[in-house]
Amino acid sequence: MREDIKIQLLQNMLEEVTKKYDYFISQQNEKIKKTFELAVRDSLTGLYNRQYLDEYARQALGRIERHENTMVLIFIDLDNFKYVNDTFGHAQGDAVLKKVGEIFKKTFRKYDIIVRFGGDEFIVLIENKRYNAKKLKEILELFVARLEENLKHFNISASYGCSFAPKEGQDIEKLIALADERMYLQKQEKKAKR
Fold this sequence. Notes:
Helix content: 55-70%
Number of strands: 4
Number of domains: 2
CATH class of the largest domain: Alpha Beta
Radius of gyration: 24 Å
Largest sheet: 4 strands, antiparallel
Order of helices and strands: HHEHHEEHEH
Strand order of the largest sheet: 2-3-1-4
CATH superfamily of the largest domain: Reverse transcriptase/Diguanylate cyclase domain
CATH topology of the largest domain: Alpha-Beta Plaits
């Protein structure tokens, strides 16, 4: 066999092996990505889950300390959700939670971290040095208005409370407890007005 034919055959074989290797690697990367998404996402709403919150918050709190940034933790609880489950059943309750997930995604920025904390409780983490109280209030009022409009036949609304890092602490449990407490106060105020 001539030398140039041998070289061409080897190049063709190498090309074929490289294509198969690239395909195998892309398949592996896709499986890893899907597995990661299953591990960090709530299967019902598509929002992040509590485990992801713990990891992300730890890193975010370190980041804000290093870069002199701020973070807002918003604790949100749906109002009247128990009524939906008790009256219409859990399948309808699941449909409501899916819709709530969609409303979260439409209202908050793509890079804000939205977590289904448990049941009908949610946490939003917003890192932003320039995020002011007026803007935060506008976004939360928009979120509640969208909830009430889209789920009015279920009489669903939401109560919320906020905590701020590093001003009010840099421990995620403390920030959650503080925001939860403020959310509960808002919920009580709403009930008192009825």
